[in-house]
Amino acid sequence: MEKVNVGVVGVGHLGTHHAKVYDHIKSTNLAGVCDVDKKQARKIGKKYKVWYYDDYRQLFDKIQAVSIAVPTSLHYKIAKDFLEAGIHVLVEKPISKTLEEADELIKIAEKNNLILQVGHIERFNPAVLAIEQYLESPRFIEGQRMGTFGKKSRIKDVGVVLDLMIHDIDIVLGLLKSEVKNIEVVSTSSISDYEDMANVRLVFKNGAICDITASRVTDEEVRKIRIFQQSSYLTLDLLHHDASIFRKKEGKIAKERIKIDRKEPLKSELKSFINCVRTNSKPIVSGKEGREALAIALDILDKIK
Predict the structure, then answer these.
(1) Which of 49, 135, 139, 160 has the least C-beta neighbours within 10 A?
(2) Residues 275 and 258 in one domain
(3) d(Cα 219, Cα 221) in Å, to the nearest integer?
(4) pLDDT tens by residue, 216-273
């Protein structure tokens, strides 16, 4: 079976990891990279001995699939150009800045029979994948996603809702498979022009309630989810790829560590993307799922404003 020729547009912190993983996947051939920073493009291109450019359109005739890891404001334009060129696209989250842009990308992909996947990497977190068999109509979900704002912060053109919280929004939508009927929000800006902390309560049509907190002004990194059900509750540590289930047994609460298949989330995500390209199958997070998460995030931002 021939390898799929892939490219990466935007080889900053995240895109560099995409290039590295593609270079190690047996079914892909990293054919080229692109970045507006010519020195960075040259550095990554030479490292993996591939073509490097500062104009992404130069990749059109060299690849069949592409990862797009650029600022959110550029997602729509670049993804649209690749889709119209007949190239399968994985675009980092969020899918775009607006729902109208997302709708057009989905329409173009469907028209051209192309894969459009959105990079919600937490769907491929081993802890998230491991709990699927233990889910029994969750009633309450609590999520915490905390980070620091400093030299390691890579996104400064959006607030925590589109930077961090959208991950947990996507996870919850995937777990509950129900529509949101009500949103309550509390937020504050501390060190930027955007919301740096937000707490959101989502009430779903199936009766489930979800409480999510996201912050980038804490002194430690936290990514945890707790899922409460009728006869058990689950705890997930997404940062350390760990999960446990607590159940009542003989009048006591018994804890059981859930077996985790500790695969690298990014590698799982990119391998899944390439498999969808090969088999023309629907991604776990297609353009439509990416749009749903964006819609909730934009509703939250409207309430913040």
Answers:
(1) 49
(2) no
(3) 7
(4) 988 889 999 999 999 899 999 999 999 999 998 888 899 999 999 999 999 999 999 9
**Nearest in space to 94 (alpha carbons), one of 70, 114, 113:** 70
| Domain around 129 | 123-263+297-304
Tokens 């892939």 correspond to: 6
Structure tokens at 80: 């649209």
Q: Are residues 194 and 101 in the same domain?
A: no
Instruction: Let me know how many helices (H) and strands (E) the chain has, helices first.
Output: 9, 14
Same domain, 236 and 161: yes
State the Cα–Cα distance between residues 225 and 212, nearest whole angstrom: 9
Among residues 81, 62, 84, the alpha carbon closest in space to that of 4 is found at 62
Shared-domain flag, residues 83 and 212: no
> pTM of the entire structure?
0.93
Q: Are residues 245 and 272 in the same domain?
A: no
Yes or no: say if 99 and 299 are a contact pair by the CB < 8 Å rule.
no
- Helix (H/G/I), strand (E/B), else coil: 233: strand
Residue type, 226: R
Same domain, 249 and 280: no
The CATH number covering residue 93 comes to 3.40.50.720
**Tokens coding 7:** 């490219």
Q: Identify whether the C-beta of residue 102 lies closer than 8 Å to the C-beta of residue 290.
A: yes
The shares of helix, strand and coil residues in the chain, as percent rounded to the nearest 5, are 40, 30, 35
What residues form DSSP beta bridges with 77?
A: none
| Tally of structural domains, the chain | 2
Residue-wise pLDDT tens digits, 88-144? 999 999 999 999 999 999 999 999 999 999 999 999 999 999 999 999 999 999 999
Packed helices 38-48 and 13-24: angle between N→C axes, nearest 10 degrees: 20
- Rounded Cα distance between 301 and 305, Å, is 6
Q: Which of 56, 52, 54 is nearest to 36 (CA)?
A: 54
Give which of 207, 205, 244, 203 is closest to 224, Cα–Cα. Answer: 244
